Amino acid sequence: MISEIPADTRRLLLVACTITALAAGALGAFAAQSVRPSCSYVVFSLGSGAEQEEAMERGYWQAVGSGECAPPHARWQFWRG
Questions:
Q1: Do 27 and 75 touch, CB atoms closer than 8 A?
Q2: Angstrom distance (rounded) from CA 33 to CA 72
Q3: Cβ(37)–Cβ(69) below 8 Å
Q4: How far apart, in whole angstroms, are the C-alpha atoms of residue 38 and residue 32?
Q5: What are 74's strand-pairing partners?
Q6: CA atoms of 24 and 48, how far apart (whole Å)
Q7: Are the CB atoms for 69 and 41 separated by under 8 Å?
């Protein structure tokens, strides 16, 4: 039955399916990314840029542990409405 379809149509169908699969994969990768909800916390650090980043990360996880901030979640979780 597939052999009855003209070669140009088969090629076009293959391209369309490939583009659809790539778009679905990209959307799936975007949706699965972990995001942090907006949250406010205070961190004091007098170190270099890397040390400040580490202090901010530690501060965030301390705020999550104390219940002041929500933990990270997959981006798609709030798409359902």
A1: no
A2: 10
A3: yes
A4: 18
A5: 34
A6: 41
A7: yes
Handedness of CA 22, 25, 29, 30 (dihedral sign): positive
Helix residue ranges per DSSP H, the chain: 7-32, 49-65
Is residue 32 packed enough to be buried (19+ CB in 10 Å), middle (13-18) or exposed (0-12)? exposed
Instruction: In whole angstroms, give the CA distance from residue 75 to residue 19.
Output: 23
The whole-number pLDDT of residue 48 equals: 85
Average pLDDT by stretches of 10, the chain with 81 residues? 77 94 94 86 83 88 90 82 59
Nearest by Cα to 73 from 43, 38, 42: 38
What is the rounded CA–CA span in Å between residue 60 and residue 34? 15
First to last CA, the chain: 43
Q: Name the token pair of 76.
A: 């798609």
